[in-house]
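Methods — Computational structure assignment.
A single polypeptide chain was analysed. Its primary sequence is given first, followed by the predicted tertiary structure written as structure tokens.
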Amino acid sequence: MKKLYSLLVMALLVVSVIPMIMAADTGGEINPDVTTEDFAPLVWMCDSRVVYDDEWQPGTTPGEKLIERQQNYAFEGESIKWKVLVMDKNGVEKIQDVFATVGSGQGAGNDIEVNCNKIGGQSEKIPESCNARIGEEEIDDFDSDIMEFYECTLNVETADSMYGEQWITVEAMDIDGLSGTMDENEYWFLNPKIALTIQGDLTFEDVRPGTTAYSDTILIGNDDDGAGTGVRLEMYIAGTNFFDSSSSGAMCPDSNVLELENFRYFATNGYSSTANVGGVGPYNIDSEGYSEIPYGDQINEAKEIIGTEGYSTHIANNVGNVLTPGSEMALTFRLDLPEPCNGDFDTGSIYFWGEAI
């Protein structure tokens, strides 16, 4: 009986040990290390990029699009406008500044010339014109948490601060100093120097009163600053009455004034001439192809030397009135001297202007 009891105790002891072994466990830990990319802002040009005329010079309406500008030059007061989309995957609150830059190098880091303005009211979809993409990934949906639209307008300053060949682009910078630019960097010649050349003299000698006389042909040329800017000039003309500078008792025919309306001119430039215009508008071309000269000593009082049918300035296809660098326009003047007429009329002017287009 004792023997049996001892065996049962031992069995119980064995059974009581097994659950303790099965319930034992162990564990460990790992500490993740996550580093968020410092995302440099991306800039895409969207919708439109426009060049506008200045508000000071005559010709086009102030603020009108310079659709006739064919070369990369711009003058004081003219402006370039872009609409851009900026993305920062770290969040729009990290976008510190968006601005247009001007400088000698392409890309980021040039001088900041103007800040851009945020614009709202955007749709859920990004305009196709933005061509927004990261590598091969196209981005179609607008996300206000990481994207914003901006409008940037750069006005060309005076030649003292903006002159010569310059790179222009739009750049975005975040609070970490990371930046990006739109792909479409632009190369401009700012405030190129322009000049006219006048070859020949406008002289009428010993003209008999009541007769018609013709001058030698003079040449009006586009003389740029030799930097290869390609500046094209639209040409204008105006003039004043003429007077005798000596005390000669001049009279022609009713007073001591030889009026400008007694002068006319004939101009040619390639295929075009004043004879092609017709007798309309302020040109009033006569049967010989000679045009009137308007009164004035400023360009806003002048008219195109070779106009178009009707009076219209800055017509993009009016190539006859445009001088390219190094080219000349030929003008011959005619004087219909009144009768009676006495005096030497040597005081007065005929003016020529070239406006860059």
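Note: The longest helix spans residues 2-22.
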